[in-house]
Amino acid sequence: MHRHRAMYKGTTPPWKETYRKIFSLKNDGELAVLEEIQQELIAQEQAILEEYDKSMQYEEQCVIAMAEGLDADSHVICPLCHR
């Protein structure tokens, strides 16, 4: 059995090693492109989150200003009975 395996288990053909090297270089290039895309996506995500935070702060300020305006006038109107 050992002799049978030895017949079929030889060294790697040279073309196979060359193919592996080329494929490895190609994958390295693709990896660099993917990393660049990932960095761009992260930057876009951060910009979106910053804009969302600004929007939420503005909304909060608007609600606070409206609430203060209602307290100052002491004219709170019930939405059901309008008193």
TrEMBL record:
<dbReference type="GO" id="GO:0016605">
    <property type="term" value="C:PML body"/>
</dbReference>
<dbReference type="GO" id="GO:0006606">
    <property type="term" value="P:protein import into nucleus"/>
</dbReference>
<dbReference type="InterPro" id="IPR028155">
    <property type="entry name" value="RPA_interact_central"/>
</dbReference>
<protein>
    <submittedName>
        <fullName>RPA-interacting protein B</fullName>
    </submittedName>
</protein>
<dbReference type="Pfam" id="PF14767">
    <property type="entry name" value="RPA_interact_M"/>
</dbReference>
<feature type="domain" description="RPA-interacting protein central">
    <location>
        <begin position="20"/>
        <end position="66"/>
    </location>
</feature>
<dbReference type="InterPro" id="IPR028156">
    <property type="entry name" value="RIP"/>
</dbReference>
